């Protein structure tokens, strides 16, 4: 049996990413720049010779669009591809679609978790989730126990299915805060960090346990970008 690894990609840059709005469960398509970034990723993965046996994404349009580009550029259009709503981004409830700065620098700092001058770097993912629930007037935001369970269950189900079929690599397209949450659930000492659009985070899975291999790796995009630029010059 070969090793089981999930290559977890954050979707390409979208319209809301570009203008600094929180997407959550709302959705906007990739921009032209975002599409090109994911094309770079796909070319880079192909040139690096990374093999995939299955593909998974959330059911959001931006991850589906990202997956379509990666599968086309890597030549893996024929592999099994499933969409799973457990891989969605966090739901910001009534704050979905609002400006990031307003949410993270204006609204959340007024909640209980941010008292005594605590910042986003000081609070845990759990405290951020509890703060979003606290300020969500619609009552749609997910409580931490629901949010953390659906994220971990979603990724674990993928890992178990790949392991049960003999191991190998799965390509997974998800979202920035969802990927960050998964990393923290695997290792509580993992610091919060920005997960760049089109980056690759690799986690391995063995005997019921995840291990973090790489976080927010942009090297595949860099490989792809250089190849595309050389092609244009030729």
From TrEMBL:
<dbReference type="InterPro" id="IPR050275">
    <property type="entry name" value="PGM_Phosphatase"/>
</dbReference>
<dbReference type="InterPro" id="IPR029033">
    <property type="entry name" value="His_PPase_superfam"/>
</dbReference>
<dbReference type="InterPro" id="IPR013078">
    <property type="entry name" value="His_Pase_superF_clade-1"/>
</dbReference>
<dbReference type="Pfam" id="PF00300">
    <property type="entry name" value="His_Phos_1"/>
</dbReference>
<keyword id="KW-0413">Isomerase</keyword>
<dbReference type="GO" id="GO:0004619">
    <property type="term" value="F:phosphoglycerate mutase activity"/>
</dbReference>
<protein>
    <submittedName>
        <fullName>Phosphoglycerate mutase</fullName>
        <ecNumber>5.4.2.12</ecNumber>
    </submittedName>
</protein>
